[in-house]
Amino acid sequence: MALEPVSFADLITFTRASSATRVNASGLIETVSSNVARIDYDPVTLLPKGLLIEEQRTNLLLRSTWEGGTAGVEGSGAVAPTGWSFAATTGSVSYPTSTLYPSATAIRFVAAAQRPMVAQNVTLLANTTYSQSVYVEAVDGGASILSDNIGASLPSGTTTYYIDGVVVSSATVLTAGKRVVAVHAVGGTGGSAQIRYGLGVSGAATGDVTLSCPQLEAGAF
């Protein structure tokens, strides 16, 4: 007998109460409506990865689309997105150009000798594991390593770094668009934490980095 094509809905019954994001066939992060299946694609190879299913989580970072910020020139003028602030890992910082695009969903840092980061303060519970992540959409013009792009002043605990699900060293060089994750197991003492994204080496920073979709959620993955 000849095989006849069937639709996705004919094979699988699928519901989701809210909108959600996926990487589409063009390698771009997009939001799909409630009850629309997320057929996910590899952002580099553009090959389909299949149906993306996740448990419900709450992003503890407010305004993760970076709205409210404005660009500046190297050394002055940039305004951090609403609810966020500019921060440094060490010493003082002269903030470089930062650009919000497109539609205020990504932030771009261009660094010379500065160590710019954008930060938000949150409260973490004791004896709880959190996953902190960001999508690094572009890395160009310098040695931008993992610890440049994701960092936090955290309560006591242990931190494990991942790139696209693979455990890596904090000194791993980023060479393409990647989802970078730091899983932090908070110890017996919780408390205030400053969650940071940007360029933050312990010295002069170089690079042209575009960051989007920052997340902080309770969970080990």
Pick out its properties.
221 residues, mainly beta, 7-stranded antiparallel sheet, 4-stranded antiparallel sheet, 41% strand
Question: What would your notes on this structure say?
Answer:
The strands form 4 sheets. A 7-stranded antiparallel beta sheet has the order 6-7-15-9-13-11-12, with no helix packed on it. The protein has a 4-stranded antiparallel beta sheet with strand order 5-8-14-10. Strands 1-2 form a two-stranded antiparallel sheet. By secondary structure, the chain is mainly beta. It has helices spanning 8-11, 146-149; strands at residues 20-23, 29-32, 39-41, 48-51, 85-87, 98-101, 106-111, 117-124, 129-140, 151-153, 157-163, 166-168, 178-186, 191-198, 207-218. It is globular, with a radius of gyration of 19 Å.
List the helices and strands and how they pair.
Blueprint: H1 8-11, E1 20-23, E2 29-32, E3 39-41, E4 48-51, E5 85-87, E6 98-101, E7 106-111, E8 117-124, E9 129-140, H2 146-149, E10 151-153, E11 157-163, E12 166-168, E13 178-186, E14 191-198, E15 207-218
Antiparallel strand pairs: 1-2, 3-4, 5-8, 6-7, 7-15, 8-14, 9-13, 9-15, 10-14, 11-12, 11-13
Quick description:
The chain contains two helices and 15 strands. By secondary structure, it is mainly β.
